[in-house]
Specification:
Layout: E1 2-9, H1 15-25, E2 29-34, E3 38-44, H2 47-59, E4 66-74, E5 83-85, H3 105-111, H4 155-162, E6 183-185, H5 192-204, E7 209-212, E8 217-222, H6 226-236, E9 244-247, H7 250-256, E10 257-258, H8 264-267, E11 274-279, E12 295-299, H9 304-311, E13 322-327, H10 339-345, E14 351-355, E15 367-371, E16 374-379, E17 388-390, E18 398-400, E19 410-413, E20 416-419, H11 429-446, E21 452-456, H12 462-474, E22 478-481, H13 483-494, E23 501-511, E24 517-525, E25 530-535, E26 539-542, H14 546-549, H15 551-559, H16 562-567, H17 573-585, E27 589-592, H18 595-605, H19 617-626, H20 640-652, H21 657-683, E28 687-691, H22 698-710, E29 714-716, H23 728-738
Helix pairs in contact: 5-9, 13-23, 15-18, 18-19, 19-21, 20-21, 21-22
The structure holds zinc ion (2 copies) and fe (iii) ion.
């Protein structure tokens, strides 16, 4: 008899029925069971049959599963009459929780088949698709340990659930029109199909509807209706920040955007992230959906309810094939998940389409860009979290609370780093409460009791205070890790790289060892220590928090001369004089090496964007301008001051703004590659890791990588872990587990 333990994503993806099927096909007798952290098989039979069974186990595993390790051992034969699936027994160990999975093709076909008993059922799912992480209370993954425990199965569903030949054998969230969850409009008595029809009518007429999805509410409206989009912007006080658009299908996407071969498999994957695509000229998406930039965040429907909203067979003559689908949350606060908050937060909506399946863990949509035809994650959340990444050499378990903006946290154990879905901006108390509750839920789920807690070095981050509190409560040590070092470590971890590197962290803001603001850093480092080997030229940031939003303030620090500043119309006279005074006297100024602020300054000098209304706006618009230029520039600069002087000179000469935006990107990339090369010679290192939010800029990232490779250096980049603060927790966890 063989005892086989299969580790990986083997829960909630139809793994046990699959094992049962191939065991029977190979004439084996025995059992298969979920053990919480792995699937355990006892199999008796002929040696050849056992061999074929093991081969099939690897080769034919269900498409949503991922086998990471198979351990087999020989045991004396026992008597089994047949092969069967036995009850889940819980054992501790490494746990792989499946992320939520978009609706599969088979379920989508049944959804619109009038003869199917789940015709138009908004919660249709199977072992290959549906909610997972967001409805899970604890492991092992069984119906009674999910939000679905409140909904007893009807006889027909129970029969499928227990029938190994069914697609829904062992599908925990199974339900149908006769049992299970239901959609309804809040503050109305419309339920089920009537609620969906009413929501469709409101959307078609230009209204705004809040819709409860897998990981939280979305706010939806017709993406081709300028007035609807404007109303949504006014209600959310979000003047410019781009909205994501959900298209009915790929054909609708292709009408509006340029879609390349590398992007389609991600856009249409079971994860269904938002993918940033190039807008086509002359498209019909309202210009205020993503103003001033040439990209659009695009996703495809990923729940049955989305498909019903686009395609419900009712009497409506026309329905938009592109809907804004933006996270439903008051500014800065995590995504709304329950009805009481929805009523409070969405009073400006014309309807709220909710349902009675509880969301236990929030999951915003993931957002992905592409750099050189490779994915570049901007926000790693639904569909990806909490899949772990591997980084060996871990000595202890850890909780890393992440940074302040775009907060995520990480739990780590046995060389596995599990990053949470996106939590939000932890600058306010409400987010901190959600962060704390999510930490509790995920540690329960993954059964990780941390030996150490890690956080940022920043003394005023709310996450630092939370980490101090949690460490004290758990009675474990607290480790504070420098922000940009954590960025570089996250990049090393994603690439499973252990040797020393030249780490380049270009970022908005992070607290430096010397108490100044860092963010344009060159490190020589490994997982145990770092040296700040170089940095961009320091400048003054005048006016506290305002200096992070108002790029013209940084620009003035570079321009220095008030007459030149007036000529560039950086700001009105009063503001110019005010900030000039601060800069000259040093009052309310901090010293900064933030590369993010360099982009803000360049954007202001070129008149592209002088004040940002959302984080990253000035840089995104500068990149969009640069991408309109076809010129190439080669000039090298010994320092960022030199680069700015030249940029300013050319600007005053009246050179084209788009060309100059390109010049700035190329100049910064050349400078970066040159500094890295110098350090490479000095330290004898050949590998450069690029991290920090500035490297989300696909043009800068691409140019810098190219220039580094031309110098014979190997480049480590992010792909599925964000280079921005959303990936910070991973770097913190690396340091905390390795030291
Ligand atoms: Zn399915
Ligand atoms: Zn049912
Ligand atoms: Fe950062």
């Amino acid at each position: 008899m063989l005892n086989i333990k299969v580790f990986g994503i083997v829960q909630g993806v139809g793994f046990r029925p699959f094992v049962s099927r191939i065991a029977v096909a190979n004439n084996l007798r025995g059992t298969v069971a979920n053990r919480g952290s792995y699937v355990e098989i006892f199999a008796c039979g002929d040696a050849d049959d056992l061999k074929n069974f093991l081969a099939a186990l690897q080769a034919e595993a269900p498409e949503r599963s991922a086998i990471l390790n198979v351990q087999t051992s020989e045991l004396p034969d026992e008597y089994f009459a047949d092969f069967r699936i036995v009850e889940s027994v819980h054992e501790a160990g490494d746990i792989f929780v499946s992320p939520d999975i978009a609706i599969c093709d088979k379920c989508a076909a049944e959804l619109f088949d009038p003869t199917n008993r789940r015709y138009l059922h908004p919660f249709i799912n199977c072992t290959a698709c549906g909610a997972r992480l967001t409805i899970l209370k604890n492991m092992p993954y069984d119906r009674e340990r999910t939000s679905m425990s409140e909904f007893p199965m009807c006889d027909a569903c129970a029969e499928e659930y227990h029938n190994p030949a069914s697609r829904r054998y062992d599908a925990q969230p199974i339900c149908c029109n006769d049992c299970g969850c239901e959609v309804y409009l809040l503050n109305s008595n419309l339920r089920g199909h009537d609620a969906i029809k009413s929501a469709r009518k409101i959307l078609a007429e230009g209204g705004i509807v809040a819709i409860k999805g897998i990981g939280g509410f979305h706010l939806a409206c017709d993406a081709r209706n300028v007035d609807a989009v404007r109303r949504l912007r006014d209600s959310k006080t979000r003047p410019n920040k781009p909205f994501a658009v959900m298209f009915k299908d790929i054909a609708a996407v292709e009408r509006e955007c340029i879609l390349n071969a590398a992007q389609i498999p991600f856009l249409d994957s079971p994860q269904k992230p938002i993918v940033l695509l190039q807008k086509k000229i002359g498209g019909s998406i309202a210009p205020n959906v993503a103003p001033h930039i040439n990209r659009l965040g695009v996703m495809l429907p990923y729940t049955p309810l989305h498909l019903l909203i686009f395609n419900f067979p009712d009497e409506l003559k026309a329905f938009p094939d592109a809907l804004i689908m933006t996270s439903g949350n008051p500014s800065g606060v995590p995504i709304t998940i329950d009805d009481a908050d929805a009523v409070k937060n969405f009073d400006f909506c014309d309807a709220i389409l909710s349902n009675d399946r509880k969301i236990l863990l929030r999951a915003d949509d993931s957002v992905m860009d592409f750099i050189d035809a490779r994915p570049s994650m901007i926000r790693r959340s639904r569909g990806y979290a909490p899949l772990p990444i591997f980084y060996d050499g871990g000595k202890r378990s850890a909780l890393a609370v992440g940074g302040e903006l775009k907060n995520t946290f990480c739990l780590a154990k046995n060389n596995l780093l599990y990053a949470s879905p996106h939590i939000g901006d932890a600058g306010n108390l409400q987010t901190i409460e959600v962060l704390e509750a999510s930490i509790r839920r995920m540690s329960d789920l993954l059964e990780i009791a941390p030996d150490v807690v890690a956080c940022d070095l920043h003394p005023r981050y709310r996450t630092t205070a939370l980490a101090e509190e949690l460490a004290a409560k758990l009675g474990v040590p607290l480790i504070k890790i420098q922000h940009h070092y954590a960025h570089v470590l996250s990049c090393m971890a994603e690439n499973n790289f252990h040797d020393a590197v030249i780490g380049v962290a270009f970022d908005g803001t992070g607290y430096g060892d010397d108490g100044t603001i860092w963010g344009g850093e060159f490190f020589i480092c490994d997982a145990n220590r770092y040296e700040r080997a170089a940095h961009i030229d320091a400048f003054k940031q005048a006016g506290g928090d305002k200096s992070a939003r108002e790029g013209w303030r940084i620009a003035l620090a570079f321009v220095e001369d008030l007459d030149v500043a007036r000529k560039l119309e950086l700001a009105d006279e009063q503001n110019l004089r005010g900030v000039k005074f601060l800069l000259d006297s040093g009052i309310n100024c901090v010293t900064s090496t933030s590369a993010g602020r360099l982009f803000d300054a360049a954007s202001a000098i070129l008149g592209v964007c002088k004040v940002s209304t959302y984080e990253g706006e000035a840089a995104m618009r500068l990149q969009a301008a640069a991408e309109r230029s076809t010129k190439s520039f080669r000039a090298g600069f010994a320092s960022t001051t030199e680069l700015f002087n030249e940029l300013l000179r050319r600007r005053l000469d009246g050179e084209d703004v788009c060309d100059l935006a390109r010049f700035f990107h190329a100049g910064l990339a050349e400078y970066t590659a040159q500094v890295a090369e110098d350090l490479s010679l000095r330290a004898g290192l050949k590998t450069v890791a690029l991290s920090g939010g500035v490297f989300q800029n696909s043009l800068l990232s691409s140019l810098t990588s190219d220039k580094l490779r031309r110098r014979g250096l190997t480049v480590l980049r992010h792909e599925l872990i964000p280079p921005n603060d959303g990936g910070l927790c991973i770097g913190q966890a690396v340091y905390a587990t390795q030291n």
